[in-house]
Design a protein that fits this description.
mainly alpha, elongated
Length: 146
């Protein structure tokens, strides 16, 4: 196995670990705060907690990747995307229900579908960005620990 492939595989392994840390935290946070369809991925959205679930997942992934000399950016962004999946399901449940129930012209359903697809991309992008911030902190902590 080439070193580049090994670093990429290690980065995705740490992304999976970070995502598995972030996803339950997203669910617990949304359940405990009663956020119906609101999104709680980044500070300023939802309750505005300074350390959110995807940040923590990215921090874990960045720390582990930094210790193993793997690609921290890939690990952190992957952890954010994986950790955002529960928030995506949470945020898209009601709009999808509304989109399926509304009638109208054929093109209206197409527009609704495109809007839901774009919204899903925004949710996953916000998760990746929040997790990248945690990954930078995790890389810094890994450099301190040595």
């Amino acid at each position: 196995m080439t070193p580049a492939l090994h670093h990429r595989r290690a980065a995705w392994t740490y992304a999976l670990v970070g995502g598995l840390v972030a996803a339950p935290l997203v669910v617990v946070h949304n359940r405990s705060t009663g956020l119906g369809g609101e999104l709680s991925l980044l500070p300023g959205l939802g309750t505005g907690l300074p350390l959110t679930a995807v940040f923590v997942g990215g921090l874990v992934a960045g720390f582990l990747a930094g210790r193993a000399s793997a690609d921290v950016d890939t690990a952190a962004a992957g952890a954010g995307v994986l950790g955002s999946v529960p928030a995506l399901g949470w945020a898209l449940a009601y709009p999808t229900e509304i989109a399926l129930e509304t009638g109208g012209a054929w093109w209206f359903g197409l527009v609704e579908g495109v809007m839901l697809f774009v919204f899903a991309g925004v949710v996953l992008t916000l998760g990746a960005v929040g997790s990248l911030a945690g990954g930078f902190v995790g890389r810094w902590l890994a450099s301190l620990v040595g």
